[in-house]
Write a sequence for this structure.
């Protein structure tokens, strides 16, 4: 029994949750007042958009690609949400659907020409940013009232961000990890040739995964303006790094279709809390980025240790 | 006919064709004015992209997943360190250069240590280390307003017959890197590792030592870029490296180096760096807004890689 609990596989699966618990414990130790409904709500406010962007990145990483444009893309959808969607909902919805379609088309292009996703998405990050700057040249706009209402929901006992994060993790887990087609989708990351030989269309798989990433990018942008109530083309520039780090903290691998939606959401929560932790530690803002890097390195070092035991 | 098809097979030809088209379009628009000035400006601004592009090229050539994302942070740290050490004094020029290069050695060594000891993908390793490096630069360089030594400033902005001296020096550096890539055991090993790491290892190539040297080279070149860039722009700033993340990767890819690794191309980096600068100049001349400029830059990068095509799947 004990051997089973301490097996490398179990340890590895527990690492994302364990790092979150350790971080939470440290925060509560330094600042006991954070251990309240209000405190958690405040600290985890931005967990929802970050978790959604992390899930978007996870879909792309699951098929061995990397999306370096998700941050600007979230910025674009936030800009659309705070302008078009508020002023003329029909146009706004059409524009957001267009964004998802553009992501699916990118997937098709990458597959058709066998292009490196890093370069394509790096180029597209300029395109998203450019469109966002045209839609919203200066920070501003207003989020539609219903989005603000959803993001401002006050639930009894458990803060909304925690419930929302749990729902996101479970829904994606069921679809990607437990459904038959989900296994095929991940299989395309593990052994694309085998999936292709089995008669599945790799083109369709890549388009589905990119469309899923685009959809979650849209959701991330909308949930973000629900919190900030205004937008800016650059509002989510750091989300590209957050989302990659979140997937990796959550136990995902860059190749082989080895990802975990629950882990990714936990990784996003950990990243969100890192900011609060550093503020409580009274670390100079100069070192905040560095401390985030250090935490990333520590978690990866732990994983390397476990892997070594895996042999 | 044979010569043309031979030329078309050269991976770098596309970046030079692109730069010619963009330059002609700009000059046609202005009615033939300023053609030489634009080229001269492209040579001096493109230089910095070439320096980091060369390092990134070696890293990317070692195979899929190898990218150095710490280049912008290294540029910022090396620039501010060097400016502080030199304090604007010509006498300290050499010391500043040495400090800047040592900074590169430290970052490169740290990057490789993360990759090797933690066995993490280079993208994440260089990303995490870039956070630390940038933080160091921020903490160290806050409010840093030190002018570069006059000698460095003069050197980086000097021109001979309207050609920037720095561009000539970096052209020499590019030739040296080309020799390093094609004519030395180190360069051939990089190519071999990029083509098939396991085969390279079985053939007795010290794979890990070569990868270490490659990350070291990239970081040292990034530091060098930070050093001359700070001299060129009248001092170091914390965000002066930002644009070189995309630029370093874009020039490598547009220049005809294979992203899958194993095939590198030095002349293409010069062509691509000039092309990127001329592209922005052209859009400016056409009076495009900031948004349109961003969209066009992005679309053209995607278009170039689409036309050049990806690599045939190996195996």
């Amino acid at each position: 029994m004990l051997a089973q609990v301490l097996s490398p596989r179990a340890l590895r699966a527990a690492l994302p949750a364990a790092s979150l618990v350790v971080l939470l414990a440290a925060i509560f130790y330094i600042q006991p007042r954070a251990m309240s409904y209000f405190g958690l709500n405040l600290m985890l406010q931005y967990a929802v958009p970050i978790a959604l962007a992390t899930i978007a990145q996870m879909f792309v990483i699951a098929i061995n690609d990397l999306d370096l444009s998700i941050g600007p893309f979230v910025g674009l959808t936030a800009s659309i949400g705070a302008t078009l969607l508020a002023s003329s909902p029909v146009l706004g919805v059409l524009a957001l659907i267009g964004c998802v379609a553009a992501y699916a088309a990118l997937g098709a292009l990458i597959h058709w020409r066998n292009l490196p996703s890093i370069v394509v998405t790096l180029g597209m990050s300029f395109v998203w940013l450019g469109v966002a700057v045209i839609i919203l040249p200066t920070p501003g706009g207003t989020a539609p009232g219903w989005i603000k209402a959803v993001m401002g929901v006050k639930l009894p006992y458990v803060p909304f961000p925690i419930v929302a994060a749990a729902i996101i993790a479970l829904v994606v887990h069921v679809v990607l990890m437990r459904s038959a087609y989900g296994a095929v989708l991940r299989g395309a990351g593990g052994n694309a040739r085998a999936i292709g030989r089995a008669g599945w269309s790799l083109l369709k798989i890549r388009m589905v995964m990119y469309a899923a990433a685009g959809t979650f990018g849209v959701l991330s942008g909308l949930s973000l303006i629900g919190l900030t109530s205004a937008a800016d083309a650059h509002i989510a520039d750091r989300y590209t790094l957050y989302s990659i780090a979140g997937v990796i903290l959550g136990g995902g691998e860059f190749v082989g279709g080895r990802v975990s939606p629950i882990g990714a959401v936990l990784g996003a929560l950990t990243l969100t809390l890192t900011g609060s932790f550093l503020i409580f530690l009274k670390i100079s803002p100069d070192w905040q980025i560095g401390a985030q890097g250090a935490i990333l390195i520590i978690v990866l070092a732990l994983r390397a240790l476990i892997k070594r035991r895996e042999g | 006919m044979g010569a043309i098809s031979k030329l078309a097979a050269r991976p770098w030809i596309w970046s030079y064709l692109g730069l010619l088209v963009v330059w002609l379009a700009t000059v046609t628009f202005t009615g033939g004015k300023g053609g030489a000035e634009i080229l001269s400006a492209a040579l001096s601004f493109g230089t910095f992209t070439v320096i980091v592009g060369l390092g990134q090229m070696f890293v990317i050539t070692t195979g899929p997943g190898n990218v150095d994302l710490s280049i912008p942070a290294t540029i910022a740290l090396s620039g501010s360190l060097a400016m502080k050490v030199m304090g604007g004094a010509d006498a300290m020029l050499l010391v500043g250069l040495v400090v800047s290069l040592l900074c590169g050695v430290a970052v490169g060594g740290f990057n490789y240590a993360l990759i090797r000891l933690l066995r993490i993908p280079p993208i994440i390793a260089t990303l995490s280390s870039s956070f630390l490096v940038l933080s160091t630069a921020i903490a160290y360089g806050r409010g840093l307003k030190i002018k570069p030594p006059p000698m460095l400033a003069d050197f980086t902005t000097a021109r001979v017959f309207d050609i920037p001296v720095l561009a000539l020096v970096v052209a020499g550096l590019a030739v040296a890197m080309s020799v390093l890539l094609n004519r030395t055991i180190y360069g051939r090993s990089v190519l071999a590792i990029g083509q098939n790491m396991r085969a390279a290892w079985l053939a007795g190539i010290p794979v890990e030592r070569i990868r270490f040297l490659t990350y070291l080279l990239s970081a040292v070149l990034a530091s060098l870029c930070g050093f001359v860039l700070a001299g060129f722009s009248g001092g170091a700033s914390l965000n002066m490296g930002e644009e070189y993340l995309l630029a370093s990767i874009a020039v490598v890819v547009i220049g005809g180096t294979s992203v899958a690794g194993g095939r590198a191309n030095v002349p293409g980096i010069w062509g691509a760096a000039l092309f990127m600068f001329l592209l922005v100049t052209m859009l400016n001349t056409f009076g495009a807004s900031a948004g349109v400029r961003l969209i066009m830059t992005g679309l053209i990068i995607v278009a170039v890689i689409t036309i050049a095509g990806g690599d045939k799947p190996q195996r």
Notes: Residues 21-306 of chain A form one domain. The first helix of chain A runs from residue 2 to 5.
